[in-house]
């Protein structure tokens, strides 16, 4: 069992001000794999004070100096990619091959994207009459990250913040904290100045709320549930700090009759990716009625072929969901779907055959769902797909947009004009056509209760910058 009780404050690993142990559970075995400590107000205050003291000197360093540090971090990250993958697999159950390529790999991919974007970014520009526009770092940033894609989210926040000259205090998910500890080791190895990066473990009620309401924190960046995002926004209101939120989703995948032959199979697999624990998953499959019966058959067959197994095993399979809480929530919602009258065509409640422990879920598909059912409206966050028939393009658009969320929607059609027409009417921050995902650093974020702000590329850098207008700037 790993002992990871210390925090990283002001360039050093330090013991908590007051020990509050929390066991980290391996979701594949339900056994304790590590012990961390939950921070208290004194720990949060110390981390924020270190970040505040480091802000002035760090913000005054040159763009080149900061870029050089980020480039060094990229090299250290690549060197320790396997360590990162093992930590993620252990803490949240990602199968080791997926943890190595997608989970850990997302971190280096984002760092590379930020380096490229920041190299091209202009921090000063001129207006007429000797007026200057300056982009400056906002200040001390609190970063609260989730357990489902830990390094994807840590690098999407910490790297652009430090690159533009901010200092940070990271609070990773207490459910999956081990990967953030490895990331902190990388930051320390590279030699960022003391106080530029700080990490305090804690829960939302404790360190999360303390960062959100702290008067010396200038910005709070959060990824997680919509419910928690609303609480964080309220906690931050009294200090009028900037708050950026990347929250939940209930993505619609509109499959028209002229979709390609692999559209249904692809949609099922995309929904089940990361064991369904992705906010941008296409969890509502809307299928044109003329192909609906065939689509239901293909979806059931595809789900039945999906293998669930031990995260330590190599191969293309699903691991467990992250915790007993998530396992219970998903089981309850599957039962809700059955009780609501949806037609269960694959999976169901209980663990997959041959697995008697671990938080493993049967890959589940419901057909004949209507958009008023809870399973069509609530974010399940597990490998559960709902299928809804539609009769017209207009009806598909209406159903897709009939949700409080607006993160990612999907369109399957070989008609280019239809694809463009429907994409423009999707009330979401991202639209994916025919299964094609982003190939470059792009803005990630949503409309409505999916949050505000954008992460990734130049848009992610801009979130951490203030705009200053200066007159009479004479050469």
Automatic annotation (TrEMBL):
Q: What keywords is this UniProt entry annotated with?
A: Coiled coil, Oxidoreductase
Which PROSITE patterns does the entry link to? Answer: ALDEHYDE_DEHYDR_CYS
Q: Which CDD domains match?
A: ALDH_CddD_SSP0762
- InterPro entries, alphabetized: Ald_DH/histidinol_DH, Ald_DH_C, Ald_DH_CS_CYS, Ald_DH_N, Aldehyde_DH_dom
Chain ranges of the Aldehyde dehydrogenase domain: 13-470
Q: Name one Pfam family in it.
A: Aldedh
Task: Please write the reaction equations for the catalytic activity of this protein.
Answer: an aldehyde + NAD(+) + H2O = a carboxylate + NADH + 2 H(+)
Superkingdom classification of source: Bacteria
Keyword flag Signal: no
Q: What is its EC number?
A: 1.2.1.3
The first-level EC class reads: oxidoreductase
- Give the residues annotated as coiled coil: 60-87
Asked if the Swiss-Prot or TrEMBL record annotates the protein with the keyword Oxidoreductase, the reply is: yes
Query: Which family is annotated?
Result: Belongs to the aldehyde dehydrogenase family.
Q: Which PANTHER family match?
A: ALDEHYDE DEHYDROGENASE (PTHR42804), ALDEHYDE DEHYDROGENASE-RELATED (PTHR42804:SF1)
This chain's protein is named aldehyde dehydrogenase (NAD(+))
| Species the sequence originates in | Kiloniella laminariae
